[in-house]
Structure formats: structure tokens, C-alpha cells
């Protein structure tokens, strides 16, 4: 980090493995993910699951940057979104910023189609053994997201029409309208 006071400049370098940079956290998670995941779908699920398991929603609204979600384990929807974007982009997956009703989540391109993935809402903060809450908002299309949020806006104008890479459909966990656990 470079500080310039006008009279002199100071270069500050913090190299402490106990406090890694966001870039180092992303590089480490990318390496872990790529050990077991080969497809973009698998990588997107792996990063979603990592965020859900390692981050909690910051109701104080103190942590809105990816640093909050990746290094502090706490963040707002903006932090979840920005962290997820950094992780996905590190493995070459295209993303978009989607917002609606004062909330933000991620547009993700998988297998040539765009999907809505909301890592914040996938992290419900509680468990319900009758529903897989960790993947409930993974791979939704515009029609479903418009039922959840009355005002959905993509920063790049993407449209999500497919459900092919919806978590429950792709994994076969939904059949005949029933979700199996």
C-alpha cells in the first residue's frame, strides 16, 4: 500500500499469513476448487458452497466489499456478490451484477446460458432438513427471480431463460415436482 502525505511517501507491505490479501484468498480457493471440480457448473457450486459455509450476513452493514466475505467471514449482499464474482472470474466464468428491491446478487454464465445465483439468500442462517436451502437460489431464470423480486435489473442487460443448470435440475434432485435430499 502506498501512502503519500505530500511531504514524503511511505510504502507499507503487510506480509502475514494470518491476514492474507483478498487476492491470495481467491488464489487459494481457486486452487482448492480446481483440484476437485472440472466443469463450470461444479466450480460455481463449489464457490457458492464455500461462501455459504464460511460467511455470515453482516446486519451492521460494515462489510460491503469482497474482503468482508472472503477474509472476515462477514458481509452484506454486496460483499457476497463481489466475492462470488472474484471467485468465478478467477476460473474464467463470466458474471453480471443483478439488483432488485434493494438487494444484489450475481448473474452467472454457465454452458452458454445466463442464470441468477444468490449466494446471500442461499445462506439462510438456519437449517431446514426438508429443503436444501444452500442451493435454493442457484441457477434461477428471469421468470423465477421476477416472482421473488418485483424489480430486477442487470448491469449488462443479460437475460436468463434456461433452467438447465438450476442446481436441483442439473443434479437430478428434483423429479416430478419433488425435491430429494
UniProtKB/TrEMBL annotation:
Signal peptide: none annotated. It comes from the Bacteria. Gene3D superfamilies: 3.10.620.30. Pfam families: Transglut_core. This is Transglutaminase-like domain-containing protein. Residues 69-121 form the Transglutaminase-like domain.
Amino acid at each position: 500500500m502506498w501512502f503519500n502525505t505530500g511531504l514524503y511517501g511511505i510504502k507499507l507491505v503487510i506480509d502475514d499469513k494470518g491476514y492474507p490479501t483478498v487476492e491470495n484468498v481467491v488464489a487459494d480457493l481457486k486452487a482448492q476448487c480446481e483440484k476437485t471440480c472440472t466443469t463450470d457448473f461444479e466450480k460455481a457450486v463449489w464457490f457458492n458452497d464455500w461462501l455459504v459455509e464460511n460467511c455470515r450476513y453482516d446486519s451492521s452493514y460494515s462489510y460491503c466489499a469482497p474482503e468482508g466475505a472472503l477474509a472476515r467471514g462477514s458481509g452484506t449482499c454486496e460483499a457476497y456478490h463481489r466475492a462470488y464474482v472474484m471467485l468465478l472470474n478467477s476460473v474464467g466464468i463470466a458474471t453480471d451484477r443483478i439488483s432488485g428491491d434493494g438487494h444484489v446478487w450475481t448473474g452467472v454464465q454457465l454452458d452458454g446460458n445466463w442464470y441468477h445465483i444468490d449466494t446471500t439468500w442461499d445462506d439462510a442462517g438456519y437449517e431446514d432438513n426438508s429443503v436444501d436451502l444452500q442451493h435454493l437460489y442457484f441457477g434461477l431464470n428471469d421468470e423465477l427471480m421476477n416472482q421473488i423480486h418485483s424489480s430486477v435489473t442487470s448491469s449488462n442487460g443479460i437475460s436468463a431463460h434456461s433452467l438447465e443448470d438450476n442446481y436441483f435440475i442439473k443434479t437430478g434432485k428434483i423429479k416430478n415436482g419433488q425435491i430429494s435430499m
